[in-house]
Amino acid sequence: MDTIIYPTTNLAQTQTLTIERGDGAYVYDNKGNKYLEGLAGLWCTALGYNHSELIEATKEQMSKLSYSHLFGGKTHQVAIDLADKLSAMVPVDNAKVFFGNSGSDANDSQIKMLRYYFNAMGKPEKYKIIARERSYHGVTVAAASLTGLPVNHAHFDLPFDAIGVLRTDAPHYFRNARPNESETGFVDRIINNLEQLILREGANTIAAFIVEPITGASGVIVPPAQYYSKVQALLSKYDILLWADEVITGFGRTGKAFGCETVGIHQPDMMTLAKQLSSGYMPISASVIRGDMYEAMIEPSSKVGVFGHGYTYSGHPVACAVALKTLEIFERDNVFAHAEKVGAYMQKRLSEFNEHPLVGEVRGSGMLGAIELVANKNTGLAFSDGVVGHFAMNACQQNGMITRAVAGSSLAFCPPLIVTQAHIDEMIEITAKSLDQTLDFVTKNGLLAV
Ligand SMILES: Cc1ncc(COP(=O)(O)O)c(C=O)c1O
After folding, report:
1. How far apart are CA 286 and CA 206, in angstroms?
2. Does the CB atom of residue 280 touch ligand 1 within 6 A?
3. Ligand 1 mean position to 247 CA, how many Å?
4. Other beta carbons less than 10 A from residue 215's beta carbon
5. Distance from the first to the final alpha carbon of the chain
6. Mind listing the pLDDT tens digit for each residue in 388-408?
7. CA–CA distance from 195 to each of 7, 133, 173, 210, 323 (Å)?
8. Which residue blocks in 226-290 are alpha helix, DSSP H?
């Protein structure tokens, strides 16, 4: 092994795949093998690889102003333009934008701005945040505390109590419904659990509820249709802010500009953006809050003399220039409408796997999808560990497609938004072959629970 400490990797694992270059929807390894990028890198390379206009935008900005910052009175036009553009796009009222470098640090910034805001409003006790089981919000100490996945907590002594995270149900009907419970019954039960949590803790102590409109890294959970209208009613009843983590669902991934639109979240108070914001070409994120929240933060900052939060690379000019170009291309080429159309085709084709003996559920929206492999198709019994999911993921890789096993045994699909129906057909063909190989493996090893 080399000297890298690999992120989100089994450190005892010795096998790596060296990716050397990318072009369009494909990447190539150092032996010349070609792979369809079925996960858009890490859910981010919306416009694919080797995009000449993004490369040109990078070069131009590098030559003009390779670095400058936004601290203490300095600014630059590309950051101003990008913030204006985002503010006009998002469904957040009079949106103000704070720039960061990753989804995780953007969520940390949100936590800090929430505290700043409620302190300014004279409500320092209103700092807790409700987050769901099986959610993914990143891995910095604070963001990992919001994340609801055991792997991100184990051995790190997380979550940190001081963050004040309250945990509520994952809205996953297939996995979490009780025997014979209807979808409506399921939603009513978990909404009632949420209300009981709020009453138990006291609404005056709860600042916000963070949701991924559709979860990504924890297995692509699409909540039942009535879920978000009931969530929104409850949050307004108790005066709790709705914080949409759109790090994966933002910018056309679900076929609309934002996942909020797809799932019927009308006006989130806060939104976190990253990944597709720059099509993954440069690290950049945005923490978006309501304008009046920002207004409230002005006075305390003037008392202290500074709003004491900011990164060296907040609003990095090259990252901003690439993001601006990305947004321009999204608009000019109607990329979201394309994603909606090809995404509908992808969902239709993925649903064919419902018939496969290993598949318990096919789910998704737009160009985001997952198929969950199960040990017993009739009962939906999950495999006890991630071995089968990993086998299927590796089979896909050997057959020429990159994907990811998430939440144990779900295979995730999240190709670049620019793919065509022919790419989707290729993706389905590789998946079908890989699932059959996985079924062989599972059968030979007696892993099915029949
Ligand atoms: C919904 C969501 N929030 C936050 C993050 C963290 O982003 P990053 O890996 O850029 O820190 C991710 C990453 O996958 C994500 O999916």
Report:
1. 23
2. no
3. 6
4. 28
5. 40
6. 999 999 999 999 999 999 988
7. 37, 16, 19, 15, 39
8. 227-238, 259-263
Helix, strand, coil distribution of the chain in percent, nearest 5? 45, 15, 40
Q: Is the CB of 138 under 6 A from ligand 1?
A: yes
User: Ligand 1 centre from 273 Cα, in Å?
Assistant: 9
Distance of CA 413 to the CA centre of its chain: 13
**CB 367 near ligand 1, within 6 Å:** no
CA distance 107 to 232: 21
| Atom 8 (ligand 1) nearest CA | 103
**Is the Cβ atom of 250 under 6 angstroms away from ligand 1?**
no
pLDDT classification of 1: cutoffs 50, 70, 90: low
- Collapsing DSSP to helix, strand or coil, 75 comes out as coil
State the residue for tokens 């086998």.
391
Gap from CA of 127 to ligand 1 centroid (Å): 22
Beta bridge partners of 96: 289
pLDDT range class, residue 53, cuts 50, 70, 90:
very high
Measured distance CA(134)–CA(137) in Å, rounded: 10
**DSSP letters for 159-217:** S-GGG-EEEE----HHHHPPTT--HHHHHHHHHHHHHHHHHHH-GGGEEEEEE-SS--T
| Closest alpha carbon to 230 in 293, 185, 200, 199 | 185
Report whether 381 contacts 404 (CB < 8 A).
Answer: no
> Residue 69 class from Cβ within 10 Å (0-12 exposed, 13-18 middle, 19+ buried)?
middle
Neighbours of 11 (CB within 10 A): 7
